[in-house]
Amino acid sequence: MRTLHATIFQLSAPVCLMLALVGVTAAEELGSVDTKWRPLSPDDSISVEVFDDEKIQGVACYLSRAETGGYKGAMDMAEDTSHASLDCHQVGPISIRKPLKKGESVFRERRSLIFKSMKVLRYCDSKRNVIVYLVYSEKFFDGSPQNSVSAVPISHWVSSEPAQGLARCVYTR
Question: Looking at the 3D structure of the chain, how many domains does it have?
């Protein structure tokens, strides 16, 4: 299983520093399932991970994605497919910690040795007070139309104070 954590440790120190500065969020693997048996090498699989939105407390995103096994996968040289699914939920009282930017990256993971990455972007539907997340893959030469979207309406959390106002999903100017 190639997770963002494992991938970061394989990168050089300057690249690790650069990723830390752009606010890459690490995902926690919840589990995986094998989808294709490969003799004498790792199987192809689907992994399920969760990550928290670092700017918005109270939101967690669940991400499933395909991972290529085989010898190339074992050496972290395989190009993984663009297939991914995303489902984000309110998991506590929502509070917006920092100003939001339109189309801001909240999660990124490389999907091949050099040219392909998977990204999760955040958008606001200010009119309906909803946070919208989009996952897609981009490739240096040609992208993929494979994508998934998830919307989190901002609402009162059951255990929060009734007088506490709702956070508003708006962009900075």
Answer: 1
